[in-house]
Amino acid sequence: MKFNVKALFAMAALVCLIPAASFAAVGSYAQDFEGMNPADNAALANDGWLIFANVFAPDMSYLYGYGVFTAPNNSGNFCQVDINQGGAEQGMNQLAVFSDYANVDHAAGNIIEALVFQERPIEAGDEGTYVFTYQGKRGNLEGSSTALAYIKTLDPNAGYATTNYITLDMTTAPTDWASYELSIEVDSSLVGQLLQIGFQNMATNYEGSAVFYDNILFGLDSVATEPSTMGGIKSLYR
Asked: Which of 33, 34, 187, 200 has the smallest number of Cβ neighbours within 10 A?
């Protein structure tokens, strides 16, 4: 699959041409993980990454949840900054997302849903179409494990009920890097809610569940107004 260069150009133009002060609360986000130290346990937490988990019985009846916590690195649980999983477009560092293997309910055959995400409040003035693009490839996803990327909105005034859940399945993603895109229309009915972009996996019995991600871009949909290069897009992250 070819990279969706048009989408990357559009997001790059947005990040590059609009002053940060002009964004409302949802704003924009760009990350290629090159500036993170893979040995720093707080590398992802310092960039605003969060985690949450839900646990289900084998029949998918809900058992419990835990979080929200800041995202770990180098713990072997949820996520980490990995190295040497990419090519020229991905550079040295990538984000690996996988299950919470510290949860002993794996051994009981229960299903762990692990969520790794960025979260933003939606405020008046944030209305518009937002696009979430990223590059990804399947890692050691095995057995019954599944994975997806998502955009989600939650209503704190209704018990954090999910009001939008837009997903893209990554379970059958190829082991070669490809680009992906999701979008959401934010209107005035979502003001006061929370918007998340992130990655989810479901696994049990300690089965492998890793998927690699890189070159994440999120922001208002836009049309590029001047030519750019992939190298120029990469430079936006630094």
From this structure: 187
